[in-house]
Amino acid sequence: MQNKAASITKIGWDIGGAHLKYCVISSDSDIIWYDIIDFEFWKEYKKFKNIVIKINSIYSKKNHHTENYFTMSAEMCDCFDNRADGVDYIVKQIIESKYPSYIFTKNGFQNSLKINKASFEYIGSFNWYATALYISSLFSDIIAIDFGSTTCDFLIIKNGKIKNKRTSDITGLQSNELLYTGCARTPIYAHTNEITYKNKIYKIIPEQFSSMSDIYVILDKLPVDDIYSKALNMNDHSKINACKRVSRSFGFDFAYNKLDLIKNLSKQIYDSQIKLIENNILFHKRKHFNENKKLDIMGLGLGYRAISHIGQKNNLNHIDINSILEMEIERGSELTKLFSSYVMCRL
Known about the structure:
By secondary structure, the protein is an alpha/beta fold. The chain has two domains: 7-128 and 327-346, Nucleotidyltransferase, domain 5 (2-Layer Sandwich), CATH 3.30.420; 139-323, conserved archaeal protein q6m145 (Nucleotidyltransferase, domain 5, 2-Layer Sandwich). Helices cover 33% and strands 22% of the residues. It has helices spanning 41-44, 48-59, 83-96, 127-136, 169-174, 212-218, 239-250, 259-288, 304-313, 339-346; strands spanning 7-15, 19-26, 32-38, 64-72, 101-105, 108-111, 142-147, 152-158, 161-162, 178-179, 194-197, 200-203, 296-300, 317-319. The strands form three sheets. Strands 3-2-1-4-5-6 form a six-stranded mixed sheet. Strands 7, 8, 9, 10, 13 and 14 form a six-stranded mixed sheet that branches. Helix 6 (212-218) crosses helix 8 (259-288). The longest helix has 30 residues, at 259-288. It is globular, with a radius of gyration of 21 Å. The two termini are 32 Å apart.
């Protein structure tokens, strides 16, 4: 009698500057486990290895072979002198965890034990490329917009090929393939410094009083339970506390008779951000695709609902993430918040 093949547990990781995201898939189970760990890498980087060990110890089982697959953007944190030092540190921590691990590079996965300095420039901040690679295996022509807590990535697939030109954050910004705007951690003064409402000018104080998560909560654009980033004053994400933070950004104290004012100011800030993203989508549509063809788009990340609304407004065909998951998953749309870690298990 032949021995039954060993079961494999895959843990996919996306190591970000403010959060660690992981997804666990086992060959003998239909269940997918996933979570987002609040982890400020620039402060807690010395504890990173312990987190890897802890998660592996939870999901490692007898007679199971466990493998880890990593992508990262935390190498940009200012606890490192430069990005290469960041990649080097993260890879060494992964190796020291002593679990079989593979690092995603633009040229495919490499065993963590075989990573060398020549690979560093193809490792750091290539989590977007992993997602694009996966989507390109499923769609011929599509723009996927990963609208997360901090950034917005535009993944352009044409004829089944990735058309993005970016090789780093700076080239992504220059090519309009990356926007540093998110629906949670971005400060509200990022897109405008003043708003006119009812013939009055309201200036925004450029201080870390409030963030876009407050705007999304006030306007009911994000459920409070979906927000995994901390509020800037470390308080909760309730609508009242969001209103208090936004009031402070405009230089006035919160009062209930100002709720309509706060909502209208918030709406203009939201519209400014959405218009920026919308213009970027239409820019890439004109640049890469037939103007007369109805284009598919896909919203990913914490702000995927906003991308769906942009699609409806511009007669673009929005594709839901559940349509590309390889199994039926209860609350599968939650995976969009950590999709690159899911992709690590699938590539």
